[in-house]
Design brief:
The complex is a heterodimer of chains A (171) and B (268).
Chain A (H helix, E strand, L loop, with lengths): L1 H8 L13 E7 L11 E7 L5 E8 L17 H6 L12 E2 L5 E4 L5 H6 L4 E10 L5 E10 L5 E6 L6 E6 L2
Parallel strand pairs in A: 3-4
Antiparallel strand pairs in A: 1-5, 1-9, 2-3, 2-6, 6-7, 8-9
Chain B lengths: L1 H13 L8 E6 L3 E2 L5 E9 L8 E2 L5 E4 L9 E5 L4 E6 L4 E18 L2 E7 L4 H4 L5 E18 L14 E5 L11 E8 L2 E2 L4 E6 L11 E4 L5 E5 L4 E11 L9 E12 L3
Parallel strand pairs in B: 2-10, 10-18
Antiparallel strand pairs in B: 1-3, 3-4, 3-7, 5-8, 6-7, 8-9, 8-10, 11-12, 12-13, 12-16, 14-15, 14-17, 17-18
The chains are: A mainly beta (171), B mainly beta (268).
């Protein structure tokens, strides 16, 4: 598990062109017109058909909270917390990072290749869960087959707390 | 108006004797927590509608909080108001905590000078407080266990070990891992053995804001197991009771063992 996290962890660094990436993921944090806005907590992971977690890809939360209270709200990423979050030691290098401002943010990059190299063939779901302080919660899923027969770009659009989530699967 | 009163009285008459007038409960501020040493506030009350403070506070004598390593911990900021008791718990170690209010008392019905009387209290006060002139004294042993569960970080079950006395619930599904639209399984145990054919009533909180109670009825099978499919997220109140003759109070011919729990079901 540790190795997995470390390898996935490099994703955060890669903002340049993807180098032979096998899974490219982008998550849009929507701009919301609300009275009180805080950037959402977001978790991104790969789930097997039985909903067990195959890989944790990213967790954006208030890692640098001065009072170290950022992890108090991690349980609000309910499904992620139940499936995997509560079993992890956080913050974890490379997996966890700060919350993101509205806009589209890349997750997938060269380093996800390392994750998917260890991925057994089969059906998976990319799961993205977002929760916002004094706001709502949303979870979207993109099912995909691994390994893919051909390169495919899949996407899903959130209705409230998430914008477009894109998954580019490359053989 | 008069007719209305009559109608109401007639209706009241139809309510089966077994129906409990009030519900006793613990209400935790949260059951699934993250972060370093999270805090939980728990309210304890007796009311008709769960989970509203509308009748009286629940006495906290008999409160037992079991930590994830099996040791006991004292609550902080214990208080008693007019309609509810309250206390705080610091979850210093990760894992699952069992919060239990445990009671073993006696209940007596008797006639005194032509009047029907009822008394409830500790066994040692029974002979002191019931007048010597009392006749037709019927004593019932009343065992009660009211519980709720909270988990900091990863859920575990060291605090959920079987006690072996009275009516209790053994989780098959973890009590802090309950999700709407999925099924959970629990096991009712009486004196450490499966309680078969016991009726379980489950009611979702927030009764004030809906017209139908929407209670869920379950019955334990021969192994004491019962299943609940949670229709939606919320805080649920569960109660089961068993009446038998297995009393350990010589004055009592009958024993009534009650188990109640507050369980939180989270959205998918």
């Amino acid at each position: 598990m540790r190795t997995l996290i470390l390898t996935v962890g490099l994703t955060g660094l890669a903002t340049g062109p993807a180098l032979a990436a096998d899974l490219e993921i982008s998550v849009e944090v929507p701009r919301l017109d609300v009275a009180e806005y805080h950037k959402p907590y977001v978790a991104v992971w790969l789930a097997r058909p039985d909903q067990s977690v195959a890989a944790n890809l990213a967790v954006w939360y208030d890692v640098a909270n001065k009072k170290q209270e950022g992890d108090k709200w991690l349980k609000d990423l309910r499904q992620w917390w139940r499936r995997t979050g509560r079993d992890l030691k956080l913050p974890a290098d490379g997996l966890t990072s700060a919350t993101r401002a509205p806009g589209t943010h890349a997750i997938g990059s060269a380093s996800t290749a390392a994750t998917v190299n260890g991925l057994a063939p089969g059906e998976y779901q990319l799961v993205v869960e977002a929760v916002r302080e004094v706001g709502g919660r949303e979870l979207v899923k993109i099912p995909f087959q691994w390994p893919p027969e051909k390169g495919t770009e899949l996407s899903v659009k959130g209705a409230s707390e998430l914008g477009t989530v894109t998954l580019n699967v490359k053989p | 108006m008069k007719r209305l009163v009559h109608a109401a009285a007639a209706l009241a008459f139809l309510i089966p004797v077994s129906a409990q007038a009030h519900r006793a409960w613990l209400l935790p501020s949260a059951t699934v927590l993250s972060g370093k040493e999270p805090e939980v506030t728990v309210d304890a009350a007796v009311s008709n509608d769960v989970f509203f403070f509308e009748f009286r506070p629940l006495d906290l004598d008999g409160l037992v909080v079991t930590t994830p390593d099996g040791s006991k911990v004292d609550p902080e900021n214990v208080g008693k108001g007019k309609t509810r008791s309250t206390f705080d718990l610091s979850l210093k170690a990760p894992g699952t905590y069992r919060i239990a209010l445990v009671g073993d008392s006696v209940f007596a019905r008797y006639n005194d000078k032509g009047e029907k009387k009822r008394w409830r209290g500790k066994l040692e006060n029974l002979t002191k407080e019931i007048p010597a002139t009392a006749t037709d004294v019927v004593v019932t042993q009343a065992q009660r266990r009211i519980e709720t569960f909270v988990t900091a970080g990863k859920a575990d079950d060291a605090a959920l070990k079987l006690i072996g006395k009275g009516l209790e619930m053994q989780p098959v599904s973890h009590p802090n891992d309950l999700v709407a639209n999925s099924e959970a399984t629990f096991k009712l145990m009486l004196d450490g053995k499966p309680a078969a054919d016991a009726k379980v009533e489950i009611v979702r909180g927030g009764i004030r804001y809906r017209n139908q109670l929407g209670e869920i009825a379950a019955t334990t099978d021969k192994d004491g197991l019962f299943r609940v499919k949670w229709p939606e997220a919320g805080m649920y109140w569960l109660e089961a009771s068993v009446t038998d003759d297995k009393t350990d109070v010589k004055e009592a011919k009958e024993r009534r063992a009650v188990y109640a729990a507050t369980l939180e079901v989270l959205p998918e």
